[in-house]
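Lab notebook, bench 4. We co-purified these components, and the gel suggests they stay together. Before we commit to crystallization screens, I want a quick structural picture of the whole thing.
Request: model the full complex, all chains together.
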Amino acid sequence: MLLLVLATTADAAPRLAIGSKNFSESRLLAEIFAQTLEDAGFEIDRNFNLAGTAVAFRALRAGSIDVYPEYTGTAWVTLLEQPTGGTPAEVLVGVRRVFRERYDLEWLAPLGFENAYEVAVRRAVAEERDLKTIGDLAARDDGLRYAFGFEFQEREDGLVGLRRAYGLDPASIATMQQTLKYTAAGDDAIDVLDVYTTDGLILLHDLVVLDDPAGVFPPYEAAPLVRGETLREHPAVAVALAPLGGTLDEARMRELNKRVEVDGESIERVAADFLEELGVIDAAIATATRASSSTGGRSRNVWQVLRDDRGALLERTIEHLQLVFIALAMSIVVAVPLGLALERRADRAEAVIRGVGILQTIPSIALLAFMIPFLGIGARPAIAALFLYGLYPIVRNTFTGVRDADPSAATSALALGMNPRQVLLQVKLPLAVPVILAGVRTAAVISVGTATLAAFIGAGGLGEPIVAGLQLDDAAIILSGALPAAVLALVVDGLLALVERALRPRI
Amino acid sequence: MSALRAVEVEVVYGDGTRALAGVSLAVADGETVVLVGESGSGKSTLLKCFNRLVTPTSGRIEIDGDDVTGADLEILRRSIGYVQQDGGLLPHWSVRANVEFVPRLFGCPKEKIHARSTELLELIGLDPAIYGDRRPSELSGGQRQRVAFARAIAAKPKFLLLDEPFGALDPVLRAELQDEVARWQDDLHLTALLVTHDMAEAMKLGDRIVVLREGVVQQDGTPNELRDHPANDYVVALMRAAGVTS
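Here is the predicted assembly.
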């Protein structure tokens, strides 16, 4: 038996983990890498939808993923904090040198298209106000409604640079997810938004891209960013990915993006088509991939999505439950004894409980990102975050539950000779069970909701379809994750109500 | 030697309130002494000094001649019966388990404990077969208070501390239970300290009565002494309010 296990381990294909950021171009490029490497004989773990540059980069450095598509300009400005400007070649040489020396990370050949941030306005607005450059916009933006992505607002090659170069100073900005911005512009709900050069949606929503004469937006070449360690261990990775260099020009990339974002085709299918056309993978394999991927298409309603994807959704639901239950069990194991210990130190209890409460105020994505250097990506940091969020309601309810449990019974038990520990464990704790379990139920329901965010760091769960649906602006796909999550919250709450009934002391 | 003794006991609470201002008191073996006073007089505080639910700021508390501060706290408390106004029964334990509370803490053998609780339930007039497994919430107020008494005397203590044990009962039930408790005390030869605000109850149950007001003893004497020679107008007023004297 042991030999068999050893033999299978030795024979198994080498495993690689591929990451992507949480927008469709990044996922599509990552899928192209994944299929290419699968064709070269690797076993691939897909950790797509990582929440932005910082998360993906940390995951790569921590070794949780081996490769992800990154843009040279992003690396130059955001990760290395270099000034904007310079030609694409200069930027590539710069990031290659620094990444190799500082991080032992390698940039493989750029894919051949430049993708950059740009600022776009609705055509009607551009014509009415005669806007051609970002400078024009800065001069005549009274009453215009802005919507920018969060990362864009914080970046030197984003709003920060535009403010300095053009004096662009929007009175107020709505922070929105990429595809939702396009929809909002299409519905005449916003006027100005940040876009990517290669976005297929620019075409669809009739937007005008403004010129950037000051060169705030650096050239962004997309390329596979790989761990040096991975390349040394598996030189075949570089060999397999090399043919992709220079194969995607801007027009082609925009076309592929449009198939995903506008036509609603699956990234597996679009990637397979592209690779087959390129001759990188075999026609038979491409056909098989297309067959196994979901049919895609905009026309499906939520019930059709639930039916077609039920296998995957069931798997997501199980992942989701695992995250919630492991985290909840850990929270209970820590928070209940903590709440009991605080009963003896009522003077410090409020301070400690408030301290635990502060954890609650840390935004989930930030907390998840902080933990990547220690816990990597995937289930572990997600469980750690859910564990921390679960502490507060349980410790709060445990403490108030035992503190307020029938004071008269507690006094008489003490007066008749129980020691304080016996009073706590035999009198107050059993009487506090309903209150403590109410805290556990609160934590569980919050946890089911928060666990949807785990998809941003590759932990799976019902957040996957929600994130994917947001990128595709496809309500049916969003609901195919959100509905089961809501049902799950009700079911978990109901089950815990039964547990409460069983544990509640008979009074 | 007095069984229970307080010497110049002063209690000042954390907020500066002075509950007892140097109170002395002695209860002889087998005697029942009643502490009478209005709320805030310090009578309950003094009672709680004896089982160390309250620690005196100064002064001394002795039981059978020994200073209580030297005693093992849990052992001390298990050897003193205690009944409070609302009974203080454990709501999640059966009536029988409540009665068995102290013997269990002492770790007595199970059969012995069971026999004892059966005996006590019969003593207080509750059929063990019917009431033994009920929860306190399934009993009437009078029944609950009887169970509290049974619990207090289950481990055969020498001393009973009774903190307004009849306070929550209606008058008819109160009189009935007072008679029964007086009988049990005599039968079991208990030394008791009883706290009440009801002078009539004090006259009925006390071998001696100690009147407290704002932490100071007003009078300490037998019911007859109080009736015939009240020490001051306050004692007179208390007696009159209770209808003891006209």
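Chain B has a mean pLDDT of 91. Worth comparing against the SEC data before the next meeting. Chain B is about 40% helix and 25% strand.
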